[in-house]
Amino acid sequence: MIETEQSVTIAADIGTVWTFARDIRRWAGLMPGMQECEIVDDDNSRWTLKVGVGGLVRTVRVAVHVEQWDEPEQVLFAYRLEGDPVQGGGSYRAIASGTEATEVTLHVRVEGGGPMAPMWEAMGRPLLPQLAKGFAGQLKAEIEKAAGMAEQAIPLAAERRSWLARVFDWLRRLWRPAST
Amino acid sequence: MIRNIPEKWDLEADVVAIGSGIGGLSAAITAHDYGASTLVLERSGQVGGVTALSMGEVWVAGNHHAKELGIEDSVESGFRYLERLSMGYGSTAAILNLTANARHALKYFEDRIGLRMEVIRDCPDYYYTVSNDSVAEGRMLECEPFPGQSLGEWQPRTRLSPQMPYGLTHADMFAAGGVANMMKWDFAKMGERLTNDERCLGPGLAAYFVKGALDRGIPLMTGASAEELIADGTRVVGVRVVDDGRDVFVKANKAVIVAVSSYEENHDYNKTLSQQLDLGSMLFSGINGANFRLAGPLGARVARVPDITSLGIRVPGEEDEEGRPLWRSALAVIGQPHTIVVNRAGRRFGNEAFYRSFYYTIDAIDGGNQTHPNFPCWVVIDSQVREKYPFASLTPGQDWPEGFGARADTVAELARMIGVDARGLEDTIARFNANAEKGEDPDFGRGTHPWSVWMCGDPFHKPNPNLGPLVKPPFYAVELHRLGGSAIPAAGILTDQDSCVMGWDDRPIEGLYAAGNSVARMETGAVMQSGISNARGMTHGWLAARHACGDPSPLLRQEAERLGL
Q1: Helix H or strand E segment including A5
Q2: What interhelical angle do B75-86 and B92-113 show, nearest 10?
Q3: Are residues B29 and B163 in the same domain?
Q4: Cα–Cα distance between B476 and B428 in angstroms, integer?
Q5: I need a surface site. Which of B221, B274, B471, B513 has the fewest CB within 10 A?
Q6: How many CB pairs under 8 A join A and B?
Q7: CATH code of residue B94
């Protein structure tokens, strides 16, 4: 088994972060290489991803099952690759680290199965941290973007923010169009 | 000669190498070390070229690593080995030139750029036991793992292979029983190497040369497509490059070296130069015959040697970095036990475990009925393969992908599904099985070449590592497609012993050189030997730079005199 943990601090309160995190479509949309997300029901979905390993890009289909929703701090999930003997699981944990900041920690594990289990885990070893890091970074960016837009629409919320936070927001808005 | 000098030059260097594989980088590094200013132009966004897609083997006869291991070998033995491969289609001078110079070029780069090579133990020449001048091991070299992180900002811009398991060396793979015994590989080591970006095989070899260029401060211009050579009426003096849609004129004071590989991604050239139809390719799209378009207007002479058509497989769901379906070679797969290849009649037609014999049969033409009797063709396996061996990228324990070939509980049903003569296939398998049980293939001699055992055999399978009966259902069949030779072409530009491009008047074109797979394969002629392509690129680039910088290699003349040729 291999596993990774990635933490990010998001400049939004834990409730705002949860509003985003509880929507599985939004999760899926942040996943690097995501092609399609089919929602089966509240707890089950089927993701189609293009995953890069070296110069190879491989399409994989992943069945994702949310085992537990603990609003607003925790989500536990499991997944299984379709056609490949690979499964795993993980958790999303959020802790308020201030009125306008939330620390999110993603933990993901991969378990290869069958006679080639060591190969699947060897290939996943460099890939897993990249995917988790990419996902965490996207999660932060998207929530802060949404939070920033809300602030523009609701000046009262913005007034509560520190001077420094507002300067950072301004800088982020300046930078964002050039990077997309 | 043409005269097309621009009104002004945008850049200037003494030596301009076009292409960033081992040929172009060898030339640039050597020229730099002779005191010349150098520049490398690369059309794609990544450096390393086709070298990075290869297995990274470098075939060098009489090399010092073999000598240190006490392996007996010599330049003249390597020369005679290649002469026999050539079958008269190559050039004696070119063959001796390569064998005389390659070992010195190897030592040069080991001393200068920190290239670390070693003998691939127990890796025989293709024709070991067939040719008197073959060796059981010693000529095939590979690099030690290269630390990718040392490339700095060029780490993600130095090409990796989508097909090769570059987290392991040949030594790692074959110590565990080779490709067939993938289940026994040390995947903990592979995972550690991939995580730390330690590159083996072709990606490692290419990275050593990229690092050599970076350490010297040689500019590597990516996204720079060389479109036209510039001449002053007497010699080549520069290159017109298109960079981001804009013409950039690069002046070359001493030399332009064309090292852009071959033309495998150009179907028109494949058809008209190689007589190959609808080839798949494991390369990237830039390998499309720029060598001919650049050197052609200068009057460069083209030469061609006999060539093979390889066979390939596409596994659903796999793409290359350009978003195109990924091709994989069938070479190792079709020589494993419990595996055969058949034509429409359900008949085998060659030794599947020795591609240098088998692949000459793919495009054979029956003039009587205007068909290719052996194409299309199918690889047929039984369930033992699925349980024990890799099949393309499918490994034991993986599901058989939807839409990938056919699967049936009986041979007859399988034949009907793929449109092959059922009686023919049943008879073929019955005959193959009876002989395979005895470890024999009286029809085509499969399992008699030591190289076949090394490359696609299962050394733990008895009595013959390349032969096993197809008896366990379900049975599987996948149609094989024509595949290019991984940039090893039939045709190329003719050069002399200093890698100077020759004109149709048999005189060198001043200022113009070529290296690697851009050059006609006069060193191998009719047949190839793995590891020669990388050896050619490295040696051609080294020779070209030496000549351009005023110090041409004397080794061909010296060896010819010594051998009385």
Answers
A1: strand A2-10
A2: 130
A3: yes
A4: 15
A5: B471
A6: 85
A7: 3.50.50.60
Quote the tokens at residue A35. Answer: 């092609």
- The domain tally of chain B equals 2
Domain spans, chain A: 2-143
Q: How far is CA B4 from the centre of its chain?
A: 35
**pLDDT value of position A170:** 40
Mutation pick from A3, A36, A48, A57 vs chain B, by most beta carbons of B within 10 Å, is A57
Burial (CB count within 10 angstroms: exposed 0-12, middle 13-18, buried 19+), residue B453: buried
A33/B contact by beta carbon, under 8 A: no
Chain B CB within 8 Å of residue A123 CB: yes
pLDDT digits (tens, 9 = 90+) for A83-119: 999 999 999 999 999 889 999 999 999 999 988 999 9
Nearest chain B residue to A116 by CA distance is: B183
Interchain pair A126, B183: CB under 8 A:
no
User: Using the beta-carbon criterion (under 8 Å), do B398 and A54 form an inter-chain contact?
Assistant: no
Question: Are B194 and A123 within 8 A, CB to CB?
Answer: yes
Residue B231 in any domain: the answer is no
The pLDDT assigned to A180 comes to: 28
Torsion over CA: B85, B89, B92, B98 (sign) = negative
Cis peptide before B203 (omega within 30 of 0): no
Q: Which residue has the tokens 């993980």?
A: A90
| Residue B21 to residue B18: CA distance in whole angstroms | 9
Q: Which domain holds residue B426?
A: 310-483
Chain B: residue whose CA lies nearest to A127? B195
Residue B491 corresponds to which tokens in the numbers above? 């045709």
CATH code for the domain defined by A2-143: 3.30.530.20
CB contact under 8 A, B161 and A54: yes
Q: Give the model confidence (pLDDT) of B439-469 as tens digits.
A: 999 999 999 999 999 999 999 999 999 999 9
What stretches in chain B show pLDDT beneath 70?
none
Structure tokens at A70: 């603990």
**B232 falls within a domain:** no
pTM: 0.92
